[in-house]
Amino acid sequence: MLFGVDTKPNDDWWIGRNEPDIHNLNKLEALMFQGNGYFGIRSTLEEHYMEEKRDMFVLGTFDKYENEATELPNLPDIVNLEIVINGKVMKLNHGSVTQYQRGFNIKNGEMTRSFIWKYDGKAYRFKFWRFVSMARRHLFVSKVEVAPLDDSARIQIRSGIDGQQTNSGTQHLVDGTKRLFNARFIQMQTRTQQSKVKFALTEFHRLCLNGTDLNMNPRLKLNRRQIYADYSVDVDKEQTLTIVKYANIFSSIDKDLKDNVSKDSLAELEQTSQLSYDKLLAETTQAWDEKVWQKSLIKISSHNNKPQIAINFARYQLLANTPQDWRMNIGAKGMTGEGYKGHTFWDTEMFMLPYYILTLPQYAHDLLKYRYLGLVGAKKKAHENGYRGAQYPWEAALPEDAESAPIWGNADIVTGKPMKILSGFIEQHITSDVAFGVMQYLQATGDKTFAHEMGYEIVLQCAKFWASRLEWNSQKNYYEITDVIGPDEYKEHVSNDAYTNYMAHWTMKCGADIIADLRQNDPKDYKRLNEKIGLEELYKALIQRASMLYVPSPNEQLVIPQDDNYLSYKKIDVTKYKNSEKDKEDVSEIFKDFDLKELDKIQVTKQPDVLLLLLLFEDKFSKQIIKDNWDYYEPKTTHDSSLSYSPHAILANDLGLYSKAFEYYEKACQVDLGTNQESSVKGTHIGSLAGIWNVVIEGFGGVRITDKGLRIQPHIPKSWQSLEFSIIWKNTKINIFVSHKYFSVMSKKKIKFICHDHIYQVEPDEKLLIEF
Amino acid sequence: MLFGVDTKPNDDWWIGRNEPDIHNLNKLEALMFQGNGYFGIRSTLEEHYMEEKRDMFVLGTFDKYENEATELPNLPDIVNLEIVINGKVMKLNHGSVTQYQRGFNIKNGEMTRSFIWKYDGKAYRFKFWRFVSMARRHLFVSKVEVAPLDDSARIQIRSGIDGQQTNSGTQHLVDGTKRLFNARFIQMQTRTQQSKVKFALTEFHRLCLNGTDLNMNPRLKLNRRQIYADYSVDVDKEQTLTIVKYANIFSSIDKDLKDNVSKDSLAELEQTSQLSYDKLLAETTQAWDEKVWQKSLIKISSHNNKPQIAINFARYQLLANTPQDWRMNIGAKGMTGEGYKGHTFWDTEMFMLPYYILTLPQYAHDLLKYRYLGLVGAKKKAHENGYRGAQYPWEAALPEDAESAPIWGNADIVTGKPMKILSGFIEQHITSDVAFGVMQYLQATGDKTFAHEMGYEIVLQCAKFWASRLEWNSQKNYYEITDVIGPDEYKEHVSNDAYTNYMAHWTMKCGADIIADLRQNDPKDYKRLNEKIGLEELYKALIQRASMLYVPSPNEQLVIPQDDNYLSYKKIDVTKYKNSEKDKEDVSEIFKDFDLKELDKIQVTKQPDVLLLLLLFEDKFSKQIIKDNWDYYEPKTTHDSSLSYSPHAILANDLGLYSKAFEYYEKACQVDLGTNQESSVKGTHIGSLAGIWNVVIEGFGGVRITDKGLRIQPHIPKSWQSLEFSIIWKNTKINIFVSHKYFSVMSKKKIKFICHDHIYQVEPDEKLLIEF
Lengths: 772, 772
Hints:
Two copies of one chain form a homodimer. Chain A is an alpha+beta fold. Among the domains of chain A are: 76-252, Glycoside hydrolase, family 65, N-terminal domain (Beta-galactosidase, Chain A, domain 5, Distorted Sandwich), CATH 2.70.98.40; 703-772, Maltose phosphorylase, domain 3 (Sandwich). In chain A, strands 1, 2, 8, 9, 10, 11, 13, 14, 15, 16 and 19 form an eleven-stranded antiparallel sheet that branches. In chain A, strands 7-6-12-18-17 form a five-stranded antiparallel sheet, with no helix packed on it. In chain A, β8 and β9 (110-119) form a beta hairpin. In chain A, α19 (645-654) runs antiparallel to α20 (658-673). The mean pLDDT of chain A is 96. Chain A binds chain B through residues 48-50, 65-68, 93, 163-171, 174-175, 177-181, 183, 186, 193, 219-225, 227, 410-418, 585, and chain B through 48-50, 65-68, 93, 163-171, 174-175, 177-181, 183, 186, 193, 219-225, 227, 410-418, 585. Chains A, B: Keywords: Glycosyltransferase, Hydrolase, Transferase. Chains A, B: Substrate binds at residues 346-347, 606-607. Chains A, B: Residues 704-761 form the Glycoside hydrolase family 65 C-terminal domain. Chains A, B: The active site is at 489 (proton donor). Chains A, B: Belongs to the glycosyl hydrolase 65 family.
């Protein structure tokens, strides 16, 4: 498996680069992203380069600039630290650089860098360390060491808060107030233009010479939207100058705000800056350990450690981008770049949620609580579109917002006509996806409280939407769903997209089951929800509509038509597009040959549509149907979405197509970690990273959350010796070990699971071993 | 005289650089500024560099972002043109560069660049040309030639409209509409956020191979706030690929707008793009000639051509930045950078206006008409401050705005406390300066129409302001003016600043004279203005207040106190600060030793205050007084404003201190053209550039507009052989020739002038020759 970053054979937690490469900084900025679920920073270097993209976001602080879509504002940069040696700015492209190494510790998010810089015949040793604290959510700490090796030098440092950043030219923040407190702490206070979210950022610097604190006060440098602390120190040969930079950020929407952003920010930094870099890093390492690594195990024994690095990396990226605050959700690119504006898509429920449900259920709970809060916006969207119930936005920002997708996309590159982005209008399966996520969570956790307080209401409102959304086709005498976009986004305005119709059917069915269950078992809750939603009427509607909704059945060749017309379209050879990567300009190869109107009329699929359906509802379809549809659709799929690989890998593994499964697994790993320097530039692919976990645990580990309970049916790749992992099922930790000969399951409490239609029971603390 | 640019001994119209220098691009961006009084562009290079500052402004299109001061919005960049050769982006810091020359033709604003670029062992010849049209106010044209010298090459071009520019992080424009018209014209439409000024920018590219039009349509590339045209051409060895880029900009405040910005912009470019680069350049050269160069002559015969280049350069910069639209005025840095936000200061009346009055009176008329329109804002400001009449803003943007100066400046660099910018509140001499400008114009042109329609009203409203502004000191039994800032801006909250009090006195006196004159000679106008301003009452007030206003007289040492306390402050040695330039950070040397509070109590002056007064009113003071005050104040002046050199040069010349005069003259020339790479970075100093003209014509040429008429009393520097120039006086062109032995004056009509208190009369077409 080729990676675009260097790795170490004996370190499962390290990615890096052993050569300076200032022409491909953007990818590393995203891969070495530092975040803690509250805020996150792209790992630009301390010194400035032409192509750098300095991005920092605080989750949930959305702002809408004029006619643009709401987005996370790019905040003032706190990473910058310019070092001038004898009047010359240190840059990797000035002078010469040797012994370069840039590394990233996946375990705690610490980035390090070291090299010898030679200029004018004299050498200097540089070392850099920095991290975003997982223990103190507002904190960023950075440490730099400079040592002149050949001669004494005057070393000037400029480090500060640079508010000239924009979201690709869009400025969300006002030019705020710049202050100095206690002669040492620099602060910038600002706020967003439209949403009036306030921010305060404070920095403190400690300079030491050979370990002795110089107790230096900065000289201030103020520019428009910038405040810098300047220092100048004469350093003798072989002395070491150390600069530790403490920085934090507070926002007015913080749940932990005590006074106001300015006071809180200053007070926290006054306290924190008394602690050493090492102490604060140790706290962070421990926090990562307690929050993530100790919660669940994944150990892959393979011919090399790249699979292990990939899964570790995926879990790091997931947690670093996941809010610990139910007013927010995970963006499609998290906070790793401006791509997708920090918006939440179906990626959360359909790709990321399994990881949380099965290893960190409290996170899953909060992510779904966000959707519960989002009922306000979803009802608004349904109402605006003339429907009832809750229609979830295709792109979600604040839970109370309705649709947050941009309305206009780029112009057609040939005609120059602006193209409407239709996903926000007609990519409607998201409403089923949310309900699906809720039910998966309830299945796996048995969290009755959530079900009654929030979960059922979400599902019922989604079902209510679908009941109102269906269209009666009097010719065919059934309900149908026309004019949608399914997961195959190449096709716009399709009728009866297989995935959409099946999911709508499932949602309505599920809603009816909940109503029936409540009526029988929980009259109090039934009464409450009946008053809110009108369950009597809804039940009837759901039963009637679900039974009369057209869901495309397999045809004579056992192929389920992707939509009403797909099978009638012409076929092309897709090989060329399957094997291509998006170019530097983010344009897929296929769009160089066809425009969207043409693709609309070709049997080519962007990402699994029928196949995703078959994966989710494996019990509803025979193995033969699944296989025949695989054979039909897989060759027609371009994987033009990074979300395409993981379902294909899992399905292939299910079908016994093991080398295909591994191939897709590797592709999923390579979406971000691979050699394409252009991928990840605008941010990593969080859904695809979650997909790595999905392939490992749901695919190779064979774990599935089904109606009937937990299913464990593993099969690991040939090149792996074993896979060891743990999941949490109904509040119980289960340890699973898979080799090529057998797999074992162990748990503290009694549990049951299904494997190849057999139900196995595991006694507490007894290892159940099943040979293949 | 050392210049920071290269010059050619035989070309008075060329400045340039013979070596690529990508670390000092910013200064050249301002020096090679291209503009036509409608719009202007900093001369960034076609390809991108780290430190570049892409700025483009259209005069008068002010926008106010939230709590910031109103400013000219930085518009989308149209200069960019990226050239990729065999996959490698051409940059001066990639590969090697030989035969480099970058030149700027002062006569028509054309910038050229040529070099051989070698990469991977293969050489390519590059040539660039471009200009902003003086004949078609919306137009920018750029031409590039690329020729592979060693081997064929694939050449890719990306050129477009890049709206990601900001004013140092502040974004005034909405993300607009990007369109392609007729398969060839790319357009961006946008508007300002607050003032809702609309813009359209259109571009068209013509690609030719060895002179043959390739008739290529672009492939579009659209990013956020960006639209690019992409081209790819295979070019054989020694073939030449030529790209001509036609671009324009229209704004919704344009006086010549026919339909709407989008249609006008497209229609104009459709027409213009049919003309060749050379044809359009020839138009521009002719327009410059007719508008500026033919209107007045300045010919300096000197030991080298730097004085000639400096004056040509000054006149180019002036005209390129001067609106031909009375709704606008000249910014302190014109459109050459973001500095001073496009705002107009006293620089216009006290430094730039003489050039226009004496060579281009129609421009002077329009600049003053702006102040007439500005009465709205000035009255508003007076009213807000509890005064009557018109109090002109220290910083002016739109004429109807009151004060446009920012209220808060940078924080104190030691305490970090934000500092209030007081100029907008208490630097009040601007109101007299405007009146002074009006009277100078009237003296020199005899423009009665302007006097009656606008000029008198301006002066009377200014006088009315002062009458209401004076404070009665009952102890001393006189009126006084406390709490102001004079031209010496080191001193805040001073009482009875000499310049301010004398100018206020002069303004009131002048107002009273106008009233008396109108009453006697123009009863109709008197009646009209009386109804508007209340002349009866005002006259009485002016007579009484002027007679009772304290104006500081020379003391026993003949020194006029700069203010009530100045002479009591301690003295320091100012030498160190006189000879220093502002550092890279734009911090004056003196502020490294003293803060503003300390400077307040030291006999040190930023720029002439008493001396400026003596220069303006030379007839009111004896030569001895002028000399003694020179001896007192000149050594205490740091010249920490670029406006300081020219008045010192002129006064020194008047006093016979010829080497001092020449020294100050050279310093004025070097403010922008000198070797300090940090000056001009934020824009050139238009007032100081006008100062070069002032020294040459008013100083060495001895021309002064006085109460008694035209004064010509020349004395040229030792190193000059002669100075030949023309001025316009009362609509008559006067040619003056000055050598070391004599000077001559010639005119088409009969004129009179004063020289050393003699009145000379020149008969039509007869040369009057006066020997020294």
